């Protein structure tokens, strides 16, 4: 990518979000999950829209990357599933 494209990608990203790894502990209805983060907290998360549209399946025990805002520490969004 050239420097202009890198600048546009960085400026479009949400600067108020935190990205933390975790493990899915429980699957709930309506694409909701409970995830235990690496720091020991358990939060309620949902799937990112692109993961939902691509029918990415998430199961208990899967390692995921969770995006959280700095304003709400109890909820988040799964933005990536790591391969085993």
TrEMBL record:
One of its GO terms (molecular function) is ribosome binding. Keywords: Cytoplasm, Initiation factor, Protein biosynthesis, RNA-binding, rRNA-binding. SUPFAM superfamilies: Nucleic acid-binding proteins (SSF50249). Its main location: cytoplasm. It is found in: Cytoplasm. It holds the Pfam family eIF-1a. The keyword Ribonucleoprotein does not apply. InterPro entries: NA-bd_OB-fold, RNA-binding_domain_S1_IF1, TIF_IF1. GO terms for cellular component: cytosol. Gene3D superfamilies: Nucleic acid-binding proteins (2.40.50.140). Residues 8-83 form the S1-like domain. Belongs to the IF-1 family. One of the essential components for the initiation of protein synthesis. Stabilizes the binding of IF-2 and IF-3 on the 30S subunit to which N-formylmethionyl-tRNA(fMet) subsequently binds. Helps modulate mRNA selection, yielding the 30S pre-initiation complex (PIC). Upon addition of the 50S ribosomal subunit IF-1, IF-2 and IF-3 are released leaving the mature 70S translation initiation complex. Component of the 30S ribosomal translation pre-initiation complex which assembles on the 30S ribosome in the order IF-2 and IF-3, IF-1 and N-formylmethionyl-tRNA(fMet); mRNA recruitment can occur at any time during PIC assembly. PANTHER family: TRANSLATION INITIATION FACTOR IF-1, CHLOROPLASTIC. This is Translation initiation factor IF-1. It comes from uncultured Microgenomates bacterium Rifle_16ft_4_minimus_954. The gene is infA.
């Amino acid at each position: 990518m050239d420097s202009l494209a890198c600048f546009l990608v960085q400026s479009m990203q949400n600067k108020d979000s935190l990205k933390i790894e975790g493990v899915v502990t429980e699957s709930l209805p309506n694409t909701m999950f409970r995830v235990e983060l690496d720091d020991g907290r358990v939060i309620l998360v949902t799937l990112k829209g692109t993961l939902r549209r691509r029918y990415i399946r998430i199961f208990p025990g899967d390692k995921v990357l969770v995006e959280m805002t700095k304003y709400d520490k109890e909820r988040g969004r799964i933005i990536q599933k790591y391969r085993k």
